[in-house]
Amino acid sequence: MDQRLTEIVETLAKDTGSGASEMHAAILNSLLAISNEDLTAISATEWEDFCISIHKAKPSVAPVFNIANTIMLKLEQGIKDGESLHQTLLEMIEEERRSGARIAEHAARSVRGRWFMTTSYSSTVAHVLRIIARDRRIKVTVAEAAPGGEGRLFAKLLSDQGMEVEIIYDSTVFARMEHLDGVIVGADSVTTSGLVNKVGTRALAEAARAYDLDVYGVCGWSKICPVVLSNFGFRTENVGTRLTEHQQMFESTPLDLFSGIITDRGVLPSADLRMELKVRKVARTLSSRCALQRSD
User: Fold this and answer.
1) Which residues contact 94 (CB under 8 A, 6 or more apart)?
2) Which is nearest to 67 in space by CA: 102, 36, 19, 26?
3) Hey, is 119 helix, strand or coil?
4) Nearest Cα to 89, choosing from 70, 111, 106?
5) Could you report the per-residue pLDDT of 274-289, keeping only the tens digit for each?
6) Which of 27, 28, 159, 218 is deepest in the core (most CB within 10 A)?
């Protein structure tokens, strides 16, 4: 494989601190740094190996899969010149750059109420709440998101931005929900099987449904994925005699629990999102070599 492609794969595999959007931008920027002439010179086999490798390096990250799938689909269509690939990569990075503002615009028109609950840490959720807070005074309740506790960091971020915020233990989500107006959560990926986010997300959605409240997921189109990504970060440790501790980082929440998924392309009810995903193409080589499962 081309040395520059190998370096991108190695850097991605070692990255344990970046979010999905940051990984997406890093891969695209690294590819765009290669000249059109050099992009053309890279063989189809090298591109195939690269796409397989970046997906296997981060098998649960939807934006990484979508980069690999987009490149492979172009190659299957016979598009191999560097200029066309360069333009495709530019369009992807520009769409991601504009997505935050577009998501916030759709959310401001769709989300009603003044008191919302969320969990974990999401820059997209933060942007949405900032835009909503311009037009109305809001309060945000943040579940701590154990075991990592990212919710506490997120609560501090929101309070620093001028919002009224409270932190709650994950175990008090149901008890607190009856006082709220709705739920807004981020996403690591969205498939027809559900919205994948930090564990605890489903508890918020189930609690909101029990009180007949709206639940919205917010994410850019780069996280909408036509295949199942199911690495939920399970870990079990022995902590004593006949005693183990089980931890899970992510979970999938059924789409039917959401009032809608707010993306940069609009607000999609679960039925519309499923239809969109069913017609999305998956590159044949990527599907066969990675044993991918369609999410329909």
Assistant:
1) none
2) 26
3) strand
4) 70
5) 999 988 999 998 888 8
6) 218
CA distances to 105, 129, 143, 173, 265 from 199, rounded to whole Å, are: 27, 21, 11, 13, 26
Average confidence (pLDDT) over 221-245: 87
Task: Pick 155 or 22 by higher pLDDT.
Answer: 155
The residue with tokens 């780069």 is 222
Q: Is the pLDDT of residue 191 over 60?
A: yes
**Does one domain contain both 138 and 249?**
yes
Helices (H), the chain: 3-14, 20-32, 36-41, 44-57, 62-76, 82-110, 123-135, 150-160, 173-177, 201-210, 270-279, 284-289
Which of 1-15, 107-121, 226-240, 258-272 is least confident?
A: 226-240
Task: List the one residue out of 205, 200, 203, 202 whose CA is nearest residue 146.
Answer: 200
Residue 187 DSSP class:
-
294 assigned to some structural domain: no
- Using an 8 Å Cβ cutoff, are 283 and 131 in contact? no
Mean pLDDT (the chain) is 92
* CATH classification of the domain holding 219: 3.40.50.10470
Q: What's the length of the chain?
A: 296
CATH number of the domain enclosing 74: 1.20.120
